[in-house]
Structure formats: structure tokens, C-alpha cells
Inverse folding.
């Protein structure tokens, strides 16, 4: 995370933003907040990626039923990310495996990466926002 | 809390005029809201309103204006998928105004 300086050349101000999602979709407001910030931020044409690790992988789980907890099921909104040109979605392989999930259990196409590869990707970002 | 009166029935709206309960919506609600803005809804308005309702049903959000124009263009043709066309229909800001008539929450974003 290097803060706000411009990229080399000075004219290209597109920054790399990574939104890191670690928490289960309901029970806290983090998942929904992250998603809303990503959708609003999409208007600024930055280079945005979303990463799902730990219980954050449940945010993308198919077949969410929220009626009995009295909350809106916002998971269909992840399928709208493509309309907002947010196409870089990464899921940590270890987190999926630890929960008995595979990419087929997820609502949207993602790239599944091992922890080390995600770490390298994180290293390349200008800004990492953790939710 | 204020309300919009539709055929003798009061529907609660928030301070910006958006329906509080999405389930209260019907076509009369849209017509009444539009009439309050001195607007008569035409087929062209309904195309956009119905598009927004379908989009919300599918994705659980009201699309941002940029996404709306692109998606309208794809579905209804390029002559309609631009902000000039949409602003002529909904002069108060296509996403905001059309979402209000469609009974959806205010879209996240500016217009």
C-alpha cells in the first residue's frame, strides 16, 4: 500500500484497488458495505479487484436463504458486478477447501488462487481495503 | 413520514418520495407520482420503468446511471441507450426519478 502518489508518467491516474472480504455475509455489515463501496466506486474507472478469504467466501455461496433472519438477501447483486465492469474476483483456495466448497458452489465465475499467489497480487496494489 | 395517496389508499414514502414498502407498488403509484411532477407517463417511460423493475428483481439493486444507459442500449436499441434520451424522459435524473416511479429504493450513486 503506497498511498496516493501517481503512477509513473504522471498522466495515468488509474490506481489498483483491492477489496479484501473476510467475513460471513450476514451478522455484520462488512460484506454489504464492501459491495456498496465497490459499486459506487465503479463510477471512478479505477482498476478494482475483489478478494474473498476466510468466511468471506460464503458471501459468494449459491442458494442463500435469509428470510428467517429478517435480512435482505443481497447475494444476487454480486452477479451485477460484471455490468459495473468489476470482473476481477479472486477466491482463496485454502479458504474454499477448509469449508468443503469449490468454485461450482459460487454465484459468479471467480479465479481461485492459493494464498501465496494472492499475497503476491496484494503486493502489487496501490490500495488494499479490508472488510 | 409522508405518503402518496393512490385511489384512496395511502402508501408510505420516505423524505425523498421513495416508497417505503416495495410491495406497495402498482402502476397507479407510478402514474400518481408522475402526475405530482406534472409528467404523463408514456410507453417510452414505461419501457424504462419496467426495465428497472426487472433489473431490481434480478440483482436486488437499482443500477447506476452508467449501467442503466448501457443496459437499455443493449435491450431497447442504441437510440435509447444514451443519457440524452433518458434525461428527456426523466428530467430530474433518469436513475433517481425512474426508480422512484418504479417503487424501488434510491439508486446508489449520484443521478
Amino acid at each position: 500500500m503506497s498511498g496516493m502518489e501517481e503512477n509513473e508518467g504522471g498522466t495515468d491516474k488509474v490506481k489498483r484497488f483491492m477489496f479484501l472480504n473476510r467475513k460471513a455475509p450476514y451478522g455484520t455489515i462488512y460484506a454489504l458495505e464492501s459491495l456498496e463501496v465497490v459499486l459506487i466506486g465503479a463510477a471512478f474507472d479505477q482498476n478494482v479487484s475483489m478478494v474473498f478469504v476466510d468466511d468471506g467466501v460464503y458471501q459468494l455461496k449459491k442458494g442463500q436463504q435469509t428470510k428467517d433472519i429478517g435480512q435482505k438477501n443481497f447475494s444476487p447483486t454480486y452477479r451485477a458486478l460484471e455490468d459495473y465492469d468489476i470482473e476481477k474476483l479472486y477466491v482463496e483456495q485454502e479458504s474454499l477447501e477448509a469449508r468443503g466448497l469449490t468454485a461450482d458452489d459460487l454465484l459468479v465465475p471467480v479465479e481461485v488462487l492459493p494464498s501465496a499467489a494472492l499475497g503476491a497480487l496484494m503486493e502489487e496494489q496501490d490500495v488494499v481495503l479490508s472488510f | 413520514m409522508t405518503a402518496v395517496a393512490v385511489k384512496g389508499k395511502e402508501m408510505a414514502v420516505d423524505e425523498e418520495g421513495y416508497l417505503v414498502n416495495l410491495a406497495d407498488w402498482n402502476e397507479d403509484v407510478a402514474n400518481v407520482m408522475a402526475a405530482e411532477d406534472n409528467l404523463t407517463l408514456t410507453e417510452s417511460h414505461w419501457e424504462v420503468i419496467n426495465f428497472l423493475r426487472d433489473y431490481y428483481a434480478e440483482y436486488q439493486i437499482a443500477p447506476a446511471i452508467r449501467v442503466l444507459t448501457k443496459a437499455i442500449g443493449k435491450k431497447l436499441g442504441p437510440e435509447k441507450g444514451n443519457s440524452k434520451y433518458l434525461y428527456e424522459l426523466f428530467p430530474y435524473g433518469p436513475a433517481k426519478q425512474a426508480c422512484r416511479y418504479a417503487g424501488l429504493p434510491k439508486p446508489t450513486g449520484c443521478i
Notes: The CA atoms of residues 20 and 130 of chain A lie 5 Å apart. Chain A has one domain: 16-67+74-130. The two ends of chain A are 16 Å apart (CA to CA).
